[in-house]
Amino acid sequence: MRKIGIVGGTGIENPDTLKGFETKIIETPYGKALCNIGEMSGNLVAFLSRHGVDHSVAPHMINYRANIWALKSLGITEVFATSATGSLNPDMKAGHFVVCDQLMDFTKNRISTFYDNPIRGVAHADFTNPYCETLRQKAIAILKKTDITFHEKGCYVCTDGPRFETAAEVRAYAMLGGDVIGMTNAQEAALAREAELCYTNVAIVTNMGAGISPTPLSHKEVVEAMAQSIKNMEKLILGFIGYNKKVKDICLCKHCMKDFGGFKLYPEKE
What we know:
Elements: E1 3-7, E2 22-28, E3 31-40, E4 43-48, H1 64-73, E5 78-87, E6 97-99, E7 102-105, H2 133-143, E8 150-151, E9 155-158, H3 167-175, E10 180-182, H4 185-194, E11 198-208, H5 219-241
Parallel strand pairs: 1-4, 1-5, 5-11, 6-8, 7-9, 9-10
Antiparallel strand pairs: 2-3, 3-4, 5-10, 6-11
């Protein structure tokens, strides 16, 4: 049995999908996290809405540590995340999916580590490849069997928000090699790596970035574009959950913190 965490407001969390699932509030040292837990395709699955069940938590206010800690405490080993993004790349258009392989973090005021106290001590996680290559290849294999337009690689740029970016910022991020831009992925990916979880993100392009788009950006535009892509994302997520074939394990995620004694939920002070 695989143990899979699904993170994001994808629209898949509907009553039909979650029949037989149990809603649990997970207590963590960082606060509470809400998960819907059940079985699908013979696997344990935990759905976690990063913005809360009613999308009431702004990206800069999300309790990323509580969310990742909660998934780890449930025994999750694979995390599939999805996020709505703007495009910095003219080839990545609204409705396209991007299986991200790189990340740039331009957030300023967020906590991105569990290792910030005397008990855990100081640790430095390798983040050369921020997304699990094993899970990336699974997602790509599933997408190749669909009619969804997707890109096998893409660099995710993460900003604080909640405002959209300026045209100058978009130009700068694109010049640096960014492909899509959002407000949630940097902390999730970094914390998942420290927690020795395999983590991948498939971005949904909802709009072109500021200055690239011929019209001013609006939240309504993002919501409407996301709604059009929900069925495709549901198809991908169900495919990912049901992809129980043996695959070559080509990542080091599960052993990332071995030089620091491995990640423990409740470390003891020595």
